[in-house]
Design a protein that fits this description.
The chain has 365 residues and is an alpha/beta fold. The protein is built from 13 helices and 13 strands. It starts with 10 loop residues before the first helix and ends in a 5-residue tail after the last helix.
């Protein structure tokens, strides 16, 4: 980055930069994608979502009614013709890439599908953007698991080695390498296009129903009257509310639009090390806020590799973007548990999601 003189944008200006703009979100039917699509719509953007149909069962996307309030395209990121067609038809100015096979467990069950989606699918999008002159800002989301995790106690920096023990982590590292190649080989010649990759710590929040993730597993156990079974209770993660990294993605996208060359590259978004908690801490906090439930240890687990320690160093985002988390881990856990408790009690998910967005972003009120 050299001696970059930061161009600081307050969050009001960041959100205002999307008003009336065409924004493409891949993976919009997923957990993070549905929050981002709804948030962009609240900010006045013209949003197209590109992704698979929601998986069977509860769906945050469907609870928000997004199919009727944004341009909803059901298509596979592994279909290069469909990706190309969507970009050429919509001509977006901003692109947020979240489409992915996002779970470690299924990557063991079907590693080739994980690699096809996360690596080749991402390459299809990067190649389509190469031929879509309307795109001025690309935020390409991977994962904190793209780093070669050696279980050290300090956070990984954007320049640390990429790698992965499991197929999911390896696919995210590979997706980063493909992004870097496109950025240097093709996008460098387009002086009006800013492109950056982002890596976020473990994200939680209302509306996540994916299997084998701590918060949805807690909620399912509580609702079924069973104990929450923890296979790795001492695993430590930098838990953050879904709105935290999304605020970073939006800030980065706005700055990429203004200074394409200076804000490219890789960026971490996560809480401080002091905000890390164990899986057991998270489960007991959910129980406390929901008002019922119990925990038991499940024993040896699946036999698959699981990291016990993973944290990010976010100094770059703090110093050059002026981005900082707004909610503590305790606020995050309370907001998350309250969302589920109220939705399961009959409240409208759309109202709760909007309320939490406006609590986090008072600039939208």
């Amino acid at each position: 980055m050299g001696a970059l003189e930061p161009l600081r944008m307050d969050m009001g200006a960041v959100l205002g930069s999307f008003s009336g703009k065409r924004v493409l979100v891949t993976g919009h039917t997923g957990f993070k994608g549905s929050w981002l699509s709804f948030l962009l719509r609240e900010a006045g953007a013209d949003v197209m979502g590109y992704g698979l149909a929601p998986r069977p069962g509860p769906s945050h996307f469907e609870m928000l009614g997004l199919a009727s309030s944004i341009r909803h395209v059901v298509a596979d990121i592994r279909d290069p013709g469909a990706v190309e067609g969507a970009l050429q038809e919509f001509q977006p100015e901003y692109v947020f890439h979240l489409a992915a096979q996002a779970l470690v467990g299924p990557s063991y069950e079907n590693p080739l599908e994980t690699i096809q989606v996360n690596v080749l699918g991402s390459a299809h999008l990067l190649d389509a953007i190469r031929r879509c002159e309307s795109v001025r800002s690309l935020v390409y989301i991977t994962s904190d698991k793209c780093y070669e995790n050696v279980e050290w106690v300090w956070g990984y920096r954007e320049t640390d080695r990429l790698g992965g023990h499991d197929p999911y982590s390896a696919s995210k590292a590979a997706a980063e390498i493909v992004f870097s190649a496109y950025a240097r080989s093709f996008y460098a010649a387009r002086t009006s296009l800013g492109a950056a990759s982002t890596r976020a710590g473990n994200v939680i929040g209302g509306g996540d129903w994916a299997p084998d993730r701590i918060v949805p597993d807690c909620i399912r156990a509580i609702e079924s009257g069973q104990a929450i079974r923890l296979r790795n209770p001492r695993a430590t993660r930098p838990w953050q509310h879904v709105l935290e990294p999304l605020s970073g993605y939006l800030m980065l996208a706005a700055l990429l639009r203004e200074r394409p060359r200076e804000y490219g590259g890789a960026w971490n978004f996560g809480p401080s090390a002091q905000q890390a908690r164990t899986v057991h801490d998270v489960a007991t906090a959910i129980i406390r806020h929901v008002g019922r439930g119990s925990v038991e240890f499940a024993g040896a687990g699946t036999g698959q590799h699981e990291a016990t320690l993973l944290q990010l160093n976010c100094d770059k985002a703090h110093q050059l973007l002026g981005w900082h988390p707004r909610w503590s881990v305790d606020q995050t856990l309370e907001a998350t548990a309250r969302w589920y408790a109220q939705v399961l009690g009959g409240a409208r998910a759309e109202d709760l999601t909007r309320s939490q967005i406006h609590d986090y972003f008072p600039e939208l009120r």
